[in-house]
Design goal:
about 80 residues; mainly alpha; 2 domains; about 0% strand
Length: about 80
């Protein structure tokens, strides 16, 4: 009985590790394909800045200059509340 419990635990842990690796690979692929100016523009329109998060998640694939230029462009398009 113990053996079955141990075998099931090992299979579960290795399955979770494999899934985690697939998620990380998918995330890195999206980071490399991202148009950072467009991402920044979208965030600027929405009024959020996530540069630190993107830099943490994407590492070298993140383009800070393009992102921040996009944020400025998006912020200029952001609707202003009525006075």
């Amino acid at each position: 009985m113990r053996f079955l419990l141990i075998a099931a635990s090992v299979a579960l842990v290795s399955g979770c590790e494999s899934m985690s690796e697939k998620i990380d690979a998918s995330r890195q692929e999206r980071c490399h394909k991202a148009d950072w100016a467009m991402v920044g523009e979208r965030d600027g329109v929405e009024g959020v800045q996530q540069a630190d998060r993107y830099a943490h998640v994407c590492g070298d694939a993140y383009n800070d200059v393009a992102y921040k230029a996009g944020v400025q462009k998006g912020a200029a398009r952001r609707p202003r509340p009525p006075v």
